[in-house]
Each structure stands twice: as structure tokens, then as C-alpha cells.
Design a protein that fits this description.
The chain has 583 residues and is an alpha/beta fold. Among the domains are: 44-269, P-loop containing nucleotide triphosphate hydrolases (Rossmann fold); 410-500, no CATH class. Helices cover 64% and strands 8% of the residues. The protein has helices spanning 5-27, 30-37, 39-42, 57-65, 109-117, 151-160, 180-187, 212-226, 244-249, 257-268, 271-300, 306-357, 363-383, 396-408, 410-429, 438-448, 452-457, 460-470, 475-487, 490-494, 496-582, and strands at residues 45-51, 82-87, 94-98, 105-106, 123-129, 138-142, 166-172, 198-203, 239-241. A nine-stranded mixed beta sheet has the order 4-3-5-2-6-1-7-8-9, with helices on both faces. Helix 7 (180-187) links the parallel strand 7 (166-172) and strand 8 (198-203). Helix 1 packs antiparallel against helix 2, helix 1 packs antiparallel against helix 21 (496-582) and helix 12 packs antiparallel against helix 21. The longest helix has 87 residues, at 496-582. The chain is rod-shaped and about 160 Å long. 31% of the residues are buried.
């Protein structure tokens, strides 16, 4: 079974309402959701009372509700929109000021009258007891007029037209046929949708002897402009001569029965259809408001990554500065190390002559001064590098001992002494050898210096001794050489000339090596500490900065995805809602 027109409209209304509610809730538009939730309670059939000024609109409303609640004068009296609402169970009228977005505010009759006359801006509502004709669920709208000396009044009336479900058009019967103003009004595009529910009230009919002629002329006018519109009334039933003032006075000749019948047929009997139409108008209004809100949101929607860029620039600058500082530290340390090696090498060369002439009594002093010079030079070099003196860790005691060994000839003296003693002993025991002179011993020492340590340490000594004619001694020679080397002072036995030769060679070759080793020791120690105490924390900080930068990129990417998704969803909602409202 197919749905009726009313049922189809109700289904369409429900679908549109659900769509608007879903979108509004998703977008957090509480004003829209609240209005939707209160929609059923707010639905009223709106019947506008329209016409030129002083056409009796307010008087007709007073007559319909059976009491004078709206101001009536010979000059224009209604300066604002006034709503008259029928309410069951009400005994006396109640007056309210209507404020957008707020509940109606209770006011007194005087304030209401000031708003109604236009002496005070605003919009007012009066609630009156319902009657047989004007039942609960209807709003009678008193307007300023279609033509007025005050253009603002006309603008207010036309601005309210889209909210109407029907209209009572009042025309002073003494003015004759419908004026161009009224005809243009009926043709207005905002009026056409409900022009089939117009009732034309020819007011002040009590001032005419007959009304038939004028009624006939007006019906002819209307046939040319409204006869094609659907209406529950025949056209001749929609043009009625009345006297609102006489009706309000209770004059039976001018009762409103004919008008009330037309009103009942046009509005009361069609209340269900009008309610559904009103709901659809309201849902269209709310939907259009939502659509404008969404389009405004979309227009203002942008991805602001300025804060991300700012943070990125800050961190990238910090990373660049850290890298620059780390590289500068490394380069400075490298330069300082090279300079230290050069300076210590120079110091060592400067001390060679002093070590050459040093003896056992002065070697301690020379060695100490050498160590002090090295220490001082190291501190000077690294002062420009801002290295704490505590970091320059030179083992002076070991260095001094090493210098003593050089000067006293402990190491190289063993070589010379071994060669000298070997030559003396082998010469003394050989059957063919003769006693060696001091010169011969010196010559032998010089010739065999390079192999002296090996002679004293291996069986090659015995072999060499046997080759020189001392074979009878065999292994005993080895033990004898070893014992002699342990007990003698090589410098005493080798003579001053051997000692001088030794010291010259040792100082020249070994002091620069000592300086190089000390420089290496210092730079290695400092480098280790710089690596641990300076560079490592900086590298950790650098990695933390890079991690922070990666996090910023990650968050920005996530925000961009959210923005893109949000924008796409907003566009989709706008398209769906626009298509829905067009239907």
C-alpha cells in the first residue's frame, strides 16, 4: 500500500532530521541539536495577518480572541512582529518579550504595548486562552503592514513571510479593489508556496450599505493570480466582508461565523498536514542554518603548522650549533695536541746539551727541570683550550726515573759493559790472545755495542767466545758474564769517554722520544676525559634534539592527516546535506 502525501512528508522529515542531528552532534553544534530536540514543542501553525497600514489587522485578531489585547488606532499601530498564541487552560493573557536564543521573558502589559507600537525595538508574544476557532497549536502573527510611511515596518513584514503557513490579508473595504501593493505581494515568490491558504478579509464592512459589488471585483482580480493554486476553499469562500469592531462589541449582524468557518476549513481542519509542512519548513530552516555553519567552518578550516615550523627551526638551529661546537672542539683539540708535540719536542732538544754534561750529582736537578718545563708547556698549550690543570695528568716520577736511566746508562750501559767485559775475559783466558789495551777495549766496545744485550742474554755469547779461542770455557762463560754485568757499574769500567759517547747518543735519540711519549700521554688522557665529560654529553644532547625533531615531524604528519580527514568529512557532510535539503 502506497503512502499518502502526509505520510511521505513525515518520512522525509524524519530522515532529514536524523541527518541534521548526526552532523550537528559530530561537529559539536549544540545550538542545532538543542533546537532539533525542542522542535516538536515549538511547532505552531503560523497564520500571518497582513495588509496595508490601518487595514484592521489588529482589530480582527482582537475580535477572534474575544478581547482587546492589541493596540488599535487610526494611525499605524503595529511597529514590530507580535505573536498571539492560543493556550489551553489559560484564564488571562500573558505577555512576553522574545529574545533570540533565550526563553521568552515575562513583561507587563505596558511594556508589551510599547513593543507592539514600535516605540521600543524587539519582538513580543501574548498568550491568550484558546477558543473553538483559535486553538492551541496556532500562532496569529500581527505584522506592521505591507505598505507604511515607515519603510522599516514593511521590511519587517516581508522578512517574516517565509515563516508563515497561511495568511489573512486585510483590506479596508472603503479602499475598493485590491491595490497594486497587495497584488504584487500575492505574486511574491516567498508568498506563492502558501498563497492557496489566503483568506481575504474586507474590513470595516459595517460602513458600507452593500458589499457584494466590491467582493465580486476582488474575486475577479484574484482569479487572474491565484486560481491555479491549490486551496481547501473555493475562491468565493476566501473573500469575506467583516466588521471586527462590531463583532468584538457582540453585534450579531456582524458576527465572524462566516470568517471562522473559512478559517476552520483552511487551517484547523488541515492542522495535521500543516503541522507536517511546518515541520519540514522548520527542518529546512535549521538545515540551511547548519549548512551555512558547515560552509563557514570549511572556509575557515586551515592547517596551521606555523608552530611546528617554529619548533622545527629552533631545534634545527640547535642541532646545527651543537654539530658546529662539537666539530670546533675536535679541531681545537687536534690543533692543541699538535702544538703540544711540537713544543715538547723543542724542549727536549733544548735539554739535550744539559743532559750530556750532567753527572750523578746534577742529573736529578736537570731531570726535575725537564719535567717542570714539560708540565708548564702543557698547561700553557691547553689553557687556550680551557682545559682544567687537573686534567693534565703527567706521571712525573716515572718520567724522572726514565731520565735517570738514560743518564746513568742503566739500559745502554749494559750493552757496552757486556761487550767490554766479554772482550776482557775472553782475552785473558785465550791461549793465543794478548792483554787488551784500553784503546782496544774501547774499540771492541764500539764494534760490539749493538749485540751486547744479546751476548749477555743468550747462548750466542758462548758461541761467540768459542769462536775467538775461548772454547774451553763453554757454558761457564755465560754465567760469569751474567754475574759480572749484575755487579759492575758499567760507566766506571767503560771509562768517561764511553760514558760521554753513551750519554750523547742516549740524550739525542731518547729525549725527543720521551717528549713525544709524554705529549701522547697527555693528549690521550685529556682526549679520554673530553670524550667522556664534554663530547659524550653533547652527543647525547644532539641525539635528544634529533629525536625531538623526529617527534615534531611525526606529530605534524598526524595533525595533517587529521586535518585532511576532517576537511574531507566536512565536504562530504555539506554535499549530503545540500542534496537532502534540495529534495
Amino acid at each position: 500500500m502506497s503512502m499518502s502525501s502526509s505520510e511521505g512528508k513525515q518520512v522525509g522529515f524524519n530522515e532529514t532530521r536524523n541527518l541534521i542531528m548526526d552532523i550537528a552532534q559530530r561537529e559539536g553544534l549544540s545550538d542545532v541539536t538543542t533546537e532539533l530536540q525542542r522542535l516538536d514543542d515549538k511547532i505552531r501553525i503560523r497564520v500571518g495577518f497582513l495588509g496595508e497600514w490601518n487595514s484592521g489587522k489588529s482589530s480582527l485578531i482582537n475580535a477572534l480572541i474575544g478581547r482587546k489585547v492589541l493596540p488599535v488606532k487610526a494611525s499605524p499601530t503595529t511597529g514590530n512582529i507580535i505573536e498571539v498564541e492560543a493556550k489551553d487552560g489559560l484564564k488571562e493573557p500573558q505577555y512576553f518579550e522574545l529574545i533570540a536564543g533565550s526563553e521568552p521573558k515575562v513583561i507587563d502589559a505596558m511594556t508589551f504595548s510599547e513593543i507592539a507600537k514600535g516605540n521600543r525595538s524587539g519582538k513580543a508574544l501574548i498568550r491568550v486562552p484558546s477558543s473553538e476557532v483559535i486553538k492551541e497549536g496556532f500562532l496569529l502573527i500581527d505584522t506592521p503592514g505591507l505598505s507604511s510611511l515607515n519603510k522599516t515596518h514593511t521590511d519587517i513584514t516581508y522578512g517574516y513571510l517565509p515563516l508563515l503557513d497561511g495568511a489573512i490579508i486585510c483590506r479596508d473595504i472603503n479602499e475598493g479593489e485590491l491595490s497594486k501593493v497587495i497584488i504584487d505581494f500575492v505574486k511574491d515568490k516567498n508568498v506563492q508556496p502558501f498563497s492557496g491558504r489566503f483568506i481575504f478579509a474586507l474590513t470595516k464592512a459595517d460602513t458600507k450599505v452593500t458589499t457584494k459589488a466590491i467582493i465580486s471585483k476582488i474575486i475577479k482580480q484574484l482569479r487572474r493570480i491565484v486560481d491555479k493554486n491549490e486551496s481547501p476553499l473555493q475562491l468565493d469562500e476566501r473573500v469575506i466582508a467583516i466588521s471586527a469592531e462590531k463583532a468584538l462589541e457582540g453585534d450579531p449582524k456582524w458576527s465572524l461565523k462566516q470568517f471562522e468557518k473559512a478559517f476552520k476549513t483552511c487551517f484547523v481542519d488541515s492542522k495535521e498536514d500543516l503541522m507536517i509542512s511546518r515541520l519540514n519548513k522548520e527542518i529546512q530552516r535549521i538545515g540551511n542554518y547548519l549548512l551555512i555553519s558547515l560552509e563557514t567552518m570549511l572556509k575557515g578550516l586551515s592547517f596551521d603548522d606555523s608552530e611546528f615550523k617554529k619548533q622545527q627551526e629552533i631545534i634545527e638551529t640547535e642541532i646545527a650549533n651543537l654539530n658546529e661546537f662539537i666539530n670546533a672542539e675536535k679541531e681545537q683539540f687536534e690543533r692543541s695536541g699538535n702544538e703540544l708535540r711540537n713544543r715538547l719536542y723543542s724542549i727536549a732538544n733544548n735539554f739535550v746539551p744539559r743532559f750530556k754534561v750532567a753527572d750523578q750529582n746534577t742529573v736529578e736537578q736537570v731531570g726535575s727541570e725537564f719535567c717542570s718545563a714539560i708540565q708548564k708547556e702543557a698547561e700553557e698549550v691547553f689553557k687556550q683550550y680551557n682545559i682544567d690543570n687537573k686534567m693534565i695528568d703527567v706521571d712525573v716520577s716515572n718520567l724522572t726515573e726514565r731520565i735517570k736511566q738514560i743518564i746513568k746508562g742503566v739500559d745502554f750501559g749494559v750493552m757496552v759493559a757486556t761487550a767490554v767485559v766479554a772482550a776482557v775475559i775472553t782475552a785473558g783466558v785465550s791461549s793465543t790472545a794478548t792483554a787488551a789495551t784500553e784503546a782496544e777495549v774501547g774499540a771492541e766496545a764500539a764494534a760490539t755495542e749493538a749485540a751486547a744485550t744479546e751476548i749477555a742474554a743468550t747462548e750466542a755469547v758462548a758461541t761467540e767466545a768459542a769462536a775467538t779461542g775461548a772454547a774451553a770455557f763453554g757454558k761457564e762463560l755465560l754465567g760469569l758474564l751474567a754475574n759480572v754485568v749484575k755487579k759492575i757499574n758499567p760507566l766506571e769500567y767503560a771509562g768517561d769517554w764511553v760514558a760521554n759517547l753513551l750519554k750523547a747518543k742516549s740524550a739525542s735519540s731518547l729525549l725527543p722520544q720521551v717528549a713525544s711519549n709524554v705529549a701522547q700521554q697527555i693528549t690521550s688522557t685529556i682526549k679520554s676525559k673530553i670524550d667522556d665529560e664534554v663530547l659524550l654529553p653533547l652527543k647525547h644532547e644532539l641525539e635528544a634534539k634529533k629525536a625531538g625533531l623526529r617527534e615534531i615531524w611525526k606529530v605534524r604528519s598526524e595533525k595533517m592527516d587529521e586535518f585532511t580527514s576532517r576537511k574531507g568529512l566536512l565536504k562530504k557532510d555539506i554535499d549530503i546535506l545540500r542534496n537532502r535539503l534540495i529534495k
